[in-house]
Amino acid sequence: MKMLLEIQTPARAEPFVHNLLAQKKKVMGFGHRVYHTEDPRATVLRKMSEELGRRAGQTKWFEISKRIEDTMIREKKLNANVDFYSASAYYVLGMPVDLFPLIFAVSRISGWTAHVLEQYANNKLIRPLADYTGPANQKYIPIDQR
Ligand SMILES: CC(C)(COP(=O)(O)OP(=O)(O)OC[C@H]1O[C@@H](n2cnc3c(N)ncnc32)[C@H](O)[C@@H]1OP(=O)(O)O)[C@@H](O)C(=O)NCCC(=O)NCCS
């Protein structure tokens, strides 16, 4: 988001990216150690960023992001990661920029806690894998009916 705020207008996005790449600097929100195709979460967040921006009457953050993304795919064949479109989506929701990492963390705390318990149970270096073995095809029951 700091990068988008620095760019400010869609027309400045492409030269900004070219300048970073010419200096061999990383463009934030691109690339991933594991996913080399488009992260499926980025596909969902792109739509949310556009829709939320439209509803908030602030479409420019999505427009800047889209131009950055197009440039990165064309120039470096690098895809947006999960953090890229979450920036503009959170911003138009009115979230303070300093709280973005907290939102990222909050949704992961249950998973991280499970990994800690697994590590403590058998204190060898583990490479956690998510493998759901619980019941499938459950019906949603509203909380007040449980
Ligand atoms: C996530 C990250 C550390 C992975 O780096 P990595 O494992 O070195 O990535 P790759 O091996 O796929 O890189 C391939 C090439 O693309 C370049 N590259 C990777 N991410 C880049 C980025 N965001 N901007 C510009 N160039 C990038 C690498 O420098 C490398 O170039 P080279 O072949 O000329 O050396 C890196 O992409 C990054 O720092 N991204 C920006 C920060 C970010 O968004 N982090 C959150 C990730 S969830």
Summarize this, please?
With 146 residues, the protein is mostly helical.
Structure characterization notes:
The chain is mostly helical. The protein has helices spanning 2-7, 13-22, 40-56, 60-76, 82-92, 100-106, 109-121. Helix content is 55%, strand content 0%. Helix 2 (13-22) runs parallel beside helix 4 and helix 3 runs antiparallel to helix 4. The longest helix is centred in the N-terminal third of the chain and has 17 residues, at 40-56. The protein is globular. 22% of the residues are buried. The mean pLDDT is 93. Coenzyme A binds next to helix 5.
Query: What class would the helix/strand composition place it in?
Result: mainly alpha
CATH architecture assignment of the largest domain? Orthogonal Bundle
Topology, number of strands: 0
Q: Figure out the total of helices.
A: 7
* The level-1 CATH class of the largest domain: Mainly Alpha
Query: Which fold name fills CATH's third level, the topology of the largest domain?
Result: Cytochrome p450-Terp, domain 2
What is the makeup of the main sheet? Answer: none
How much of the polypeptide forms β-strand, as a percent range?
A: under 5%
What is the helical fraction, as a range of percent? Answer: 55-70%
The rounded distance between the terminal residues' Cα atoms is 40 Å
Mean pLDDT: 93
Please give the oligomerization state of what you see: single chain
